[in-house]
């Protein structure tokens, strides 16, 4: 998949997206030569109409203060984005929305469906609901950025692909072809002895397929040795100094609550590097 049109989801409440994430997103888009939009939502709270509660606590005033806090954060975030993207000479646009606090994820999903890829910064202080909603709701790949600041210039020296012969792993490779073509080193990692891999095929077939796109691949089978898949992938990415991890996301939604696969949950909760999830 060739990426031309990306969008960055910026969170204004309860805490704003850290500024290093904006720099990382702009750098990533610049490496791919993409247009980058940034969407930020000014949030509002629904105020209950109880006379008794309003008499005890001035809930409308509290809601107004929180909305003002979000409004100021949105202005700062979009101004910072404009400055960083302009300095990079990147084609870009700013999108300002207003919505209730519980509607932010829906706004992100709607915009994500109309772009090639959505970028979501992840941080321990955030509710991961936004990221999960985008990954499983847009039908498009999602780039999750770690909280820590990346190098000023995003590099694609080494890209690691998590491969387990599943549908989602195949989807991830197809989505990432344009990125893999730009990478200097592509490593396809299969974790063995953690779960049963139901196939009679060899990873060599994946390497053959990618070679027809001009992509040279290093295949690695890594023994889980009692570790979870998430732990193995983190260790493998660190050992090869990967710039990006490409993987399928496992999970489904029940009653607006996502039940995530173990590796997806582990890496989404604490991403050690940028991760492109496909579902």
How would you describe what is shown here?
With 279 residues, this protein is of the alpha/beta class. The protein folds into 2 domains: 141 residues, HUPs (Rossmann fold), CATH 3.40.50; 121 residues, HUPs (Rossmann fold, 3-Layer(aba) Sandwich). 40% of the residues lie in helices and 25% in strands. The protein contains 9 helices and 12 strands. The strands form 2 sheets. Strands 3-2-1-4-5-12-9-6-7-8 form a 10-stranded mixed β-sheet, sandwiched between helices. The radius of gyration is 20 Å and the shape is globular. The two termini are 14 Å apart. About 2% of the residues have low confidence.
How much of the sequence lies in strands comes to 25-35%
Biggest sheet architecture: 10 strands, mixed
How is the largest sheet built, in terms of strand order? 3-2-1-4-5-12-9-6-7-8
- Assigned CATH class of the largest domain: Alpha Beta
| CATH architecture verdict of the largest domain | 3-Layer(aba) Sandwich
Task: Give the arrangement of secondary structure elements.
Layout: E1 5-10, H1 19-32, E2 35-44, H2 51-56, H3 59-88, E3 92-100, H4 104-112, E4 117-121, H5 129-137, E5 142-145, E6 158-162, H6 167-182, E7 185-192, H7 204-211, E8 217-223, H8 229-239, E9 244-248, E10 251-254, E11 257-260, H9 262-269, E12 275-278
Parallel strand pairs: 1-2, 1-4, 2-3, 4-5, 6-7, 6-9, 7-8, 9-12
Antiparallel strand pairs: 5-12, 10-11
Helix pairs in contact: 1-3, 4-5, 8-9
């Amino acid at each position: 998949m060739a990426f031309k049109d990306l969008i960055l989801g910026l969170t204004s409440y309860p805490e704003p997206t850290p500024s290093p994430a904006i720099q990382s997103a702009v750098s990533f888009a610049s490496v791919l030569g993409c247009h980058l939009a940034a969407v930020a939502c000014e949030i509002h709270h629904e105020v209950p109409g109880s006379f008794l509660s309003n008499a005890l606590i001035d809930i409308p005033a509290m809601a107004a203060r929180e909305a003002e806090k979000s409004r100021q954060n949105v202005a700062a975030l979009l101004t910072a984005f404009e400055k960083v993207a302009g300095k990079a000479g990147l084609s870009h646009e700013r999108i300002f929305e207003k919505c209730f606090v519980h509607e932010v994820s829906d706004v992100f999903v709607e915009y994500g469906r109309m772009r090639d890829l959505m970028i979501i910064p992840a941080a321990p202080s955030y509710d991961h609901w936004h990221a999960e909603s985008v990954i499983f709701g847009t039908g498009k790949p999602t780039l999750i950025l770690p909280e820590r600041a990346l190098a000023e210039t995003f590099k694609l020296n080494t890209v690691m692909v998590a491969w387990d012969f599943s549908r989602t792993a195949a989807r991830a490779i197809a989505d990432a072809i344009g990125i893999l073509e730009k990478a200097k080193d592509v490593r396809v990692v299969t974790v063995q002895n953690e779960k049963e891999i139901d196939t009679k095929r060899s990873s060599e077939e994946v390497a053959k397929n990618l070679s027809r796109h001009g992509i040279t691949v290093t295949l690695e089978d890594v023994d889980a040795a009692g570790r979870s898949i998430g732990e193995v992938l983190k260790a493998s990415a660190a050992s090869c100094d990967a710039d990006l991890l490409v993987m399928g996301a496992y999970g489904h939604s029940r009653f607006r609550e996502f039940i995530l696969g173990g590796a997806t949950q582990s890496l989404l909760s604490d991403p050690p590097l940028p991760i492109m999830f496909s579902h």
